[in-house]
Automatic annotation (TrEMBL):
Transmembrane segments: 6-31, 40-63, 83-102, 122-143, 169-190, 249-269, 289-308
Location relative to the cell: Cell membrane
This protein's UniProt keywords: Cell membrane, G-protein coupled receptor, Membrane, Receptor, Transducer, Transmembrane, Transmembrane helix
Protein name, UniProt field: GPRX protein
Main localization (coarse): membrane
Region (Disordered): 365-389
SUPFAM superfamilies assigned to the protein according to its UniProt record, in alphabetical order: Family A G protein-coupled receptor-like
Extent of Polar residues compositional bias: 365-377
A Pfam entry, by short name: 7tm_1
Lineage of origin: Eukaryota, Metazoa, Chordata, Craniata, Vertebrata
The family this protein is said to belong to: Belongs to the G-protein coupled receptor 1 family.
Gene Ontology MF terms: G protein-coupled receptor activity
Top-rank lineage group of the source organism: Eukaryota
InterPro entries: GPCR_Rhodpsn, GPCR_Rhodpsn_7TM
Length: 389
């Protein structure tokens, strides 16, 4: 490769590493600093895995990928450690994303059951399960490795160059447990969430009593103008909100699922193809490219699962203002239309299912607010009725 390609590649790898460090630290600090955000415990764990990857794994990836470090030689023990960190952090990240998707499903479709059963003990058990499964999968990769004081270059210290006798079996098992099954779970869960969201967004909201109650006809010009304005401002605005919510749900699902597939599909497809194809020679630049596409997931995950959430963004804005010594009374309160565009997927569902948050401190009463308040007691379409005890 030319010197320009080397410089651009090294710059992109360093930029991804720094982005992963900063973004994951910011989201972790916000979640740990705010007691009300304990429901984001799996998002916080995902940030921990991404941060560990940015500290240990991605710098090792820079050494393995850049020709500036061609003279770096690893011993067998060091090479095992590199592969252990690689497989362990990748497995933990993907498994955490799968659990986050299942958690969101129960949070939306079974909200009461989620509030009762989603305890700290269950969350800790889920985190322990993730790490146990990740370590067990990693141990399988190191079976039948040669022992001794041999050495290898850093660029060859990858799963592709693994000299283990059962590398093909491991790659197939690794791809099934850490990509194929999680992908099936994510697609099934978010498809179910989308169906609930679409049903909720298309549900006709009831018209308030004062809007449909017969009134004495008044032929005065002022009365007719008042009625016309009320019809324009109140009733027709329900349809754009439902259309916006439906399109927003589709866009959010495409972003989350698409980001996961774009990051991890090339990586696992490359290793599956190389393991089942006889006579494949050299990983070369292809392995480096798919590896760093996969590593980019560690940098973008805090945006998709953390900063995409409006509550976390608002808390980040408060922290920034407090650092700049600005009074908290100068907070900018979002209007209904702005919030509907900026809210995350869960908050869209809460709004679509008539469980609006309280905005009385920011928004003055208006016909639109009174209309929204009348819809608060209606059930969510697609929700399974909770058993009363």
């Amino acid at each position: 490769r030319s010197m320009a390609q080397e410089v651009v590649g090294l710059f992109c790898m360093i930029l991804l590493t720094l982005t992963a460090l900063v973004a994951n630290i910011v989201v972790m600090v916000i979640i740990l600093k705010t007691p009300l955000f304990r429901k984001f415990i799996f998002v916080c764990h995902l940030c921990v895995v991404n941060l560990l990857s940015a500290i240990f794994l991605m710098p090792l990836g820079i050494i393995s990928s850049s020709s500036c470090f061609n003279r770096v030689i690893y011993s067998i023990a060091e090479c095992k450690a590199v592969i252990f960190l690689n497989i362990c952090f990748i497995s933990a990240s993907i498994l955490t994303i799968s659990i986050i998707s299942v958690e969101r499903y129960y949070y939306i479709v079974h909200p009461l059951r989620y509030e009762v059963k989603m305890t700290i003990r269950l969350a800790v058990a889920g985190v322990i399960f993730i790490w146990i499964k990740s370590v067990l999968i990693t141990v399988l990769a190191l079976v039948e490795w040669p022992h001794g004081n041999g050495a290898t270059s850093a660029s060859r210290c990858t799963v592709y160059w693994s000299p283990g006798a059962h590398k093909e079996i491991f790659v197939i098992l690794f791809s099934i447990t850490c990509f194929i099954l999680p992908t099936i779970i994510i697609l099934a869960v978010y498809s179910s969430i989308y169906r609930v969201a679409r049903t909720a967004s298309l549900q006709q909201a009831p018209v308030p009593a004062q809007a449909v109650a017969p009134a004495r006809r008044c032929d005065s010009l002022a009365s007719q103008v008042t009625i016309l304005i009320a019809r324009i401002l109140m009733l027709p605005r329900l349809i754009p909100d439902r259309l916006l919510g439906s399109n927003k749900a589709i866009l959010t699902l495409v972003l989350i699922v698409g980001q996961f597939l774009c990051c991890w599909l090339p990586f696992f497809a490359f290793h599956l193809h190389s393991s089942v194809t006889v006579g494949t020679v050299g990983g070369g630049h292809g392995e480096m490219l798919v590896t760093w596409i996969a590593y980019s997931s560690f940098a973008v995950n805090p945006f998709f699962y953390g900063l995409l959430n409006r509550q976390i963004r608002e808390e980040l804005a408060r922290l920034r203002r407090s650092c700049l010594n600005r009074p908290l009374g100068q907070e900018l309160c979002l209007s209904i239309s702005e919030a509907s565009v900026q809210e995350n997927f869960l908050q869209f569902l809460q709004r679509a299912t008539c469980t609006l948050e309280t905005h009385t401190s920011c928004i003055s009463p208006s016909p639109r607010n009174r209309l929204d308040q009348t819809t608060a007691g209606f059930p969510t379409p697609g929700q399974v009725p909770e058993e009363s005890s």
